[in-house]
Amino acid sequence: MLKPLAPPDAQRLREFLIAARYTNDDFQASRILQEIPKRAAGSWPYLLEHVREPTLHNLLLRLFFLGEPANVDFAAGLIPSPVLSLMLDSGLLAHHGVVLSAAVMLTPVDQFVFVADTAARMEAQAPDLVVWPNPTTRMLHQATIRRPVEATLDLGAGCGIQAVLAASHSGQVTATDLNPRAAEFTGFNAHLNGVGNVESLTGDTFETVRDRAFDLIVANPPFFVTPSADQMYCENSMELDGYCRRVVREAPRHLREGGFLQMVFEWVQVRGETWQDRIREWLEGTGCDAWVFRGYARETSAYARERIRQTSPDAADPETMKRWMNYYRERGVEEIHGGVMSMRRRAGRNWLRIEDMPLSPPGPFGDAVWDAFASIDFLHLADEEMLAARPRLAPGAQLDQQMRQVDGRWQPAEIKLRMAAGIPASMRLEPPVADFLAALDGRHPLGELAAGLAQRVGADPAVVRRECLAVVRKLTERRFLFP
After folding, report:
1. Nearest residue to 174 via CA among 146, 132, 202, 147
2. What separation in angstroms does the CA of 308 have from each of 93, 243, 313, 418, 469?
3. With contact defined as beta carbons under 8 Å apart, do 437 and 393 qualify?
4. Cβ atoms of 114 and 133 closer than 8 Å
5. How confident is the model at residue 248 (pLDDT cuts 50, 70, 90)?
6. Which of 283, 328, 396, 419 is 20–30 Å from 226 (CA)?
7. Share of the chain above pLDDT 90, in %
8. CA 216: distance to chain centroid?
9. How far is CA 89 from CA 67, 170, 212, 231, 306, in A?
10. Residue range 295-321, pLDDT digits in tens
């Protein structure tokens, strides 16, 4: 059992880790973080060799990331006595004769650090496993809208990463998980990171908050599409993608007007139905707008191979693969898709937007999600309303121009508008359109800009207005323009 740290002790431990270079920046620069998933591929001896030098930084990596024990006297020679006592008293370290072993994995994320289950417990596929910050965690972290809100819910909290990250822009954060051990880890991590506005509850989905509403819900549910329900952190007892559908259908009752649900999830394409139509059915009648970014699609056999390696101790057993494939065939599953969904509760006629995105966006894109919703609202304006609006280019928009030599002079060969930040996008432009874009800075009504353009080129104002509206709608649809 972990014992939450008192604020002065938590601060002392954080300062020690920073001084020891056990930080996000140093972690990202280390090969350990990139190589840890390859343990089964035989890279473990290489990883241990990489941290062979007897330094404090390497000792911490061996203990808290690789899960390797250390000699007590050796550790005491590098870790200050008060800090070593804190680690032992809080349950981070265990003392067995002349050997110290870590009871948890310790992973830095941004300016925080999080405890989760050890690599050994992950390999043993413990059913109540609480996992470390993984790619799914990071994707949700990148997608989350970081606007100040009164109340946030972290649904399927695990070790509480999303809850702690949301604490700085939320008045109160509630973290829920079906796994009782998740509450223990979430509470410990909140104390470890000096966060005091996080409560942790144990229960099924929205059960513990049935009479409450939130401004933001972030969800990393157990979404794997598998024939089993042994692993609480990634599997559930509902058929196929039924649990993710349940979250989508129930979330609006717990969202305030204008509130968002943001969820990483997977869904299936079954015979006789498109994957887009499956998502549409989930959202029908929810009273929410939704933007779905699809990150990947997997044919069933490829998906099964990948997930079996992650979840099954019998990964090498041919019967395991056969059982999974029969599960998909009997239910008509052709592909499994994955991505991020953002839903906003809003009265009125709701919309759904679906598009593809890279698996690994270059950085946080929560602001881009917020702007994306504003852009679609703008797109639904009538012509006169849009002409009165003051559109602006997205902050990350960048114009790239290529030139070619023609008759001894440079002439434009291609002009491309692209997003240099947020969610990647690009589109080709004609030179007149590129010139017009320079005036879209949010200071002038579109109608005024169109009238000025018509006067400069000596064209019919009605024709110019119509063409400007078409350009603005196209750019808005591609997320390059916002009101």
Report:
1. 202
2. 31, 20, 8, 39, 51
3. yes
4. yes
5. very high
6. 283
7. 65
8. 14
9. 19, 31, 37, 30, 39
10. 999 999 999 999 998 887 776 788 999
Greater confidence, 29 or 37?
29
Count Cβ atoms below 10 Å from residue 389 Cβ, excluding itself. 18
> Mean pLDDT throughout 398-412?
85
Residue 4 · residue 186 · CB < 8 Å: no
Query: 129-150: buried (b, 16+ CB within 10 Å) or exposed (e) per residue?
Result: bbbbbbebbbbbbbbbbbeebe
Tell me the pTM.
0.88
Specify the higher pLDDT residue, 414 or 308: 308
The distance from CA 124 to its chain's CA centroid, rounded to whole angstroms, is 26
What type of residue sits at position 234?
C
Alpha helices in 393-477 (DSSP H): 431-437, 446-457, 461-477
Which residue is listed with tokens 């065939």?
329
Q: How far apart are CA 249 and CA 454, in angstroms?
A: 49
Beta strands in 271-350 (DSSP E): 288-299, 333-345
The full length of the chain comes to: 483
Domains, the chain, ordered by start: 7-103 (no CATH), 135-379 (3.40.50.150), 383-482 (3.90.930)
- Antiparallel, parallel or unpaired: β 99-102 and 93-96: antiparallel
